[in-house]
Amino acid sequence: MGAFADFFSSSGLDPKKVLRTSTRLEAQSLEGRVLSQKRANKRRTAKDKSYADAGIAKPPRGRGFGASHFKNAMADRPVPVKVRSKLLKAINEQLAKAKKPAVDMKAVFGDVAAAKGESSKAKK
User: Hey, where are the domains in the chain?
Assistant: First the structure.
């Protein structure tokens, strides 16, 4: 077993609950929907201005991690940085509910490196 699987078995967390927690935490809120609407209105009306000039932030993505990401993490295969942060956020939320202290990335994933995608130079 790898570092993530060892941590998960020793902490007593339920994988299904962590997956549901991530989905709930990453779900798009009312604020995200308002930002999406503002961006759409800006695209229709002020095409020459950027979002930064209009003062409109980027809305959250609205997705938790997937079951395949969780399986890869359990097998100590590299997962993307965003997925690692979503996993950590959901784990810390579940630990907080159990009145346990929060953990950091090193404690959860150990020495397993994050997955790296293609660089922008390779795509050209």
Answer: 1-27+65-116, 29-61
